[in-house]
Amino acid sequence: MVLTIDEKENFFKNWLKLLAFVNNKYEIIEKFGNPKSPVGLNIEELMKIRNKLWENEFLINEYLKKAKIKNFDKDVIFSWNKNVKGKFLFIKSLKKHSVFMDLNKKKLYGVYGISSPIIDMMPYLPIMIQTVLIPYNGKIIFDSLIIRDNVSFGRNIRQSFNEEYMEIKKNNGIITVLE
Q1: Per-residue pLDDT reduced to its tens digit, 117-161
Q2: What is the DSSP string of 92-150?
Q3: Of 140, 135, 142, 137, which Cα lies nearest the Cα of 174?
């Protein structure tokens, strides 16, 4: 349900280097530097840099042309071009992964937590969230930042969400790899 310690460290190493590249290019946050860990970083500042990245996805390829990194890391970062941005309904937490439902595309995504189960970040389910799903080492994770909508749902709408979940799962299953 979460990345291994090695996967988590590798993800943050690559993710923070990419964000530092974006920040340096656009001078978004003064004194952002080259953080080695997400601990202590300002979420609002990270969000500004991350939003600039996803508004300009060519930056991933530009970074890969300039960066001196291992081939494995290049493959990981390149795979982030296959992302899914949007609003999702975090509807279930299963043993293997959390399930995010894209209500517009009628798709379910099985998403791993990075450091801890995603359910630990949520006050209740179902909950509307905004994030970017990215592939990582044969799994789907999110780009480390989630915005929660503070809207609660009544019993009838929760029941309709559950029915829609069951219908989508029956017809299409849960997507566990972004291709």
Answers
A1: 999 999 999 999 999 999 999 999 999 999 999 899 999 999 999
A2: EE-SS-EEEEETTTTEEEEE-BSSS-GGGG-SSSSEEEEEEEEEETTEEEE-S--EE--
A3: 140
Residue 178 inside a domain? The answer is: no
Q: Would 179 be classed as within a structural domain?
A: no
What DSSP assignment string belongs to 48-72?
A: HHHHHHHH-THHHHHHHHH----HH
pTM over cut 0.85? yes
Q: Are both 144 and 120 inside the same structural domain?
A: yes
Q: Is residue 153 part of a domain?
A: yes
When divided into structural domains, the chain yields a total of 2
* Residue 143: per-residue pLDDT: 98
Give the structural domain span for 48.
5-79
